[in-house]
Amino acid sequence: MLTKERIPVATYPSSYDMFEERPRPGTRMFRKHLTSTLHMASLVASLLATSLFAAAIPHWNSNFFHNTGPNRGDWTDGMPLGPLVFALVYHAATLVHNRTTRRQRGPAEAVTAGGRPLPLILHALSSALILATLFASLILAAYGSLFRFWRPATRTQSGGVPCDTMLNVFARECQPVLYSVGRLQLAGIVFGAAVWLCHFALFLIALRNLRRHSIIRRVQSEKLAQFSLPRSLSSDSAPTVPPGRARSNTTRAMSLGRSLSMKARQKPSHHGGRRGERTRTGSGSGTAVTDGNWHHHHQQQQQGPGRTQGWYDVAGGGGGGSDVDIQRPTQTLPPVSSRYS
């Protein structure tokens, strides 16, 4: 038996027709350019911050030392070098990978192609790691820096700056190294903060891409389930019944219906045959049909001779108007195609 299946419009979704309200290529291109710009800006800022901290460490070690901490050297300026170098390598690898992928796919495909889950997770984890480590290291670098001790010089009445007193121990005129190293540390912290801000924006973009990818996967699974649903319903809606059991159920239902119809026809009349005194004589016979069973007898006459089946009531001609139940045997007729051949 043929069954109709309603096939969805999009049987297998692709990355191009996933959403009806898909953003325009201009918006996608702007987002791609924004991501590339953030990577390049963070690359330059991380390179500058690494250079500044690396330049401040030897000058600091040759003039100062730490009283507390794991090392007497400038370990506070060495802490940001780890996340900054990692950010530098990450941005360089990402830019090279994006440029290579864009050349292989072309500009149009590079804009419209969706991201894969593994690179998206790697981008999110890398940005989160850089954010956590760089924030802590910049706090330590700011705490152990020298620009916190900068003080203006105290001059005498003649306009000179005496350096043999404790008043000008942190003045520029008395300790120029303090200011030169402090400037390097301050610039390194500023560019490190710029790297942190760029990675915060990249982390938000990575989270958005992960959310978009999860929505695409969910819509794909829903469409695939919608495609396979009509087939499963058409195969599971009609239960399979053995032929012998189906035949026995049909025979039992037919016998039950026949017995109920016979009981309904054999039920005696409450009014009796005397109520219908008005009779009508059939043509060519002396059989009189009462008013009570005239409708049933008229239907039997319309069906024609030889097509009457079951029970019907007829009033006898000289029986005093009493109803008599007469059973006529059921006749089996040949098919219509061979009846008039």
From TrEMBL:
<feature type="transmembrane region" description="Helical">
    <location>
        <begin position="38"/>
        <end position="60"/>
    </location>
</feature>
<keyword id="KW-1133">Transmembrane helix</keyword>
<feature type="compositionally biased region" description="Basic residues">
    <location>
        <begin position="264"/>
        <end position="273"/>
    </location>
</feature>
<feature type="region of interest" description="Disordered">
    <location>
        <begin position="232"/>
        <end position="341"/>
    </location>
</feature>
<feature type="transmembrane region" description="Helical">
    <location>
        <begin position="80"/>
        <end position="97"/>
    </location>
</feature>
<feature type="compositionally biased region" description="Polar residues">
    <location>
        <begin position="328"/>
        <end position="341"/>
    </location>
</feature>
<feature type="transmembrane region" description="Helical">
    <location>
        <begin position="118"/>
        <end position="143"/>
    </location>
</feature>
<keyword id="KW-0472">Membrane</keyword>
<protein>
    <submittedName>
        <fullName>Uncharacterized protein</fullName>
    </submittedName>
</protein>
<feature type="transmembrane region" description="Helical">
    <location>
        <begin position="186"/>
        <end position="207"/>
    </location>
</feature>
<keyword id="KW-0812">Transmembrane</keyword>
